[in-house]
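Standup, Tuesday
Yesterday: got the pipeline producing structure tokens again.
Today: sanity-check two examples.
Blockers: none.

Example 1:
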Amino acid sequence: MRDLFLTLFIFGYIPWIIIRPHYGIFMWSWLTYMTPHRLTWSFAFDFRFNYFVTIITLYAIFRSKDYKIRVPLNFATFFWIFFSFWVTLSGIDAIEQGAAWAEWIRYMKIQIMVIVTYVLIKKKEHLIFLVGVIAFSIGFFAFKGGIFTLLKGGHFRVLGPEFSFIADNNTFALAINMTIPLMFYFFETVKNKLYRLLIMFQIFLCILSVFGSYSRGGLIGLLAIAIALWLSSSRKIILLIFILILIPTAEMIMPEKWTQRISPMLDSLNIPHTIPANWLLSPRRILENKEFLSNTIMDSNIEKFETNQGLIKEDAEILRDLSIKGRFDAWNMAKLMSKDRPFFGGGFGSFSQESFDRYTPGVFRHAAHSIYFQVLGEQGYAGLIIWSLMHVATIFTGLWVVFRCNKDPDLDWASIMARNIIIGMLGYYSSGLSLGLAYYDLPYHYSAILVILKLLAKQKFLQRKNNRNDQESNKGTRANHTFPFTPPKATQKPHNPLQSPSG
């Protein structure tokens, strides 16, 4: 039933996309960030609705005479285009050609829709609606995850939608951190008290979902956006009370094993019960079997294992480090690979077992576990510089909007939106310290939104300037049409009709 309803809804939406192409970017964003087809059980589960919507949207653009495929050129878009060109060059010289081109196609599909966003989103209303779609799409799963965590007491881990960029707990926490500031945007701009109360409750559920994800990187990002929101707020005392109520309340709901997971102390270990009883633990044996432990270290409790196995302190300290040693192994491999291939790096998909065997023999394959080391390893030092400049230019674009529109009554909404999107990007940068999601759709979409905000602000400023010039020219025109000379009233004698002309 869900499959049929979703399919009828999407296909019934197609005429609206053809008539109004900007509806296509709304539908694509909903399908991409929420992946509603993953909530079905039959034929719609694997159907590529977003590809179909993309084709229809592109057809509607080419069919319409109102849109021209142009990308505004500034520093942010320049480095974005440059980086897209760079990943193509790195793909030509990639270590894993098959994986590299498969990932390249996925990356380019994202960039095509970023271009479509530039082409279609031209009005304030369209931009606000797009931000609302993004906030709702990711917030839907944050709502579910928060309710699930609340009902289950935090005993089970919250995951993202299946077969998506944010399917696992860590990437899901990162996406929520990027979305929370969007909800603060609506909280600041909506005047209805009931709506503001509902948004506040949704923000609390988002925080609870981050806690329920058991992601330490997610908590780092949550702390970063909390500080950024407080520093940028004009109502610091109210927001501080808000934060000091919500975050400790979420922490009180979580069980003891969550504290053990988050705590850097020995109790943070979760050792599986499936380790053989006669397996002798020693520092050498633990290091030799780190692959097995790193795959199962999060599944149970250390206390029973300590009792049965007689785990000594030295062994436990080494075992504790294995939960983060995989990250260090991946980062070390990225550094060695970029040292060997400094210009283009290893290309997409180069964090493979073959690469680990080549650069760090004897180390089991791990994901990048960092957006920075992921770009460094796959795109080289040059690619990392271009990628970094792209994000720096994006932040400066947003700051331009924040400071130029801050006290403007007509553009105050743009300043608030830009500020919260920048905070969302800060959540991405901080959570990305230990999470590898360098090619996620949302940061590129955020960058496009900031560029569009700047364009709308400039258009408003230009419109005001033209209006002032028109007013001044109208005044000058009226002055030119006045009689050139009027005799002074004091020297002009009144006419006496009884007096003859001779007088």
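Example 2:
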Amino acid sequence: MDPELTALTSTAATTVVQLLATAAWEQATNAVGGLWRRVHPDRAQTVQAKLDETRTELLAARQNGDEQLEQALVREWQGRLRRLVVADAQVVDDLRRVVAQLQSALAAADLQPGSVITMQARAFGHSRVNQAGRDLHVTTGK
């Protein structure tokens, strides 16, 4: 698979999994189910049920701070989306449209009060990392 499609399926999987942890999770489930309906109509309902299972696993992983499971879920869905695109190259444009739609939904969900914010950082040597879920005011002792 070419790098552009790999990037697309990676972005799609990440967006879908992140959206499953928001109030807009049904939108992600319906959109991905719609993609499967175009290529494998007989599997669409099963895929939507799998997304429901993924949501349950994701919420438990986030509650337990299990970032590795969350990444495994993203990889799982990337593989499924990759196989879907390989099965029918015409679904690529539909996938791009769905990704754009879901990224907009994710951005809107991130603006909701009480949204979950996940941040990661690594500092090496004498560096410093400052992270904040909202406002950050840094003062130095100078």
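Quick observation on example 2: The helical segments are 3-20, 25-39, 44-64, 67-87, 91-110. The CA atoms of residues 54 and 73 lie 7 Å apart.
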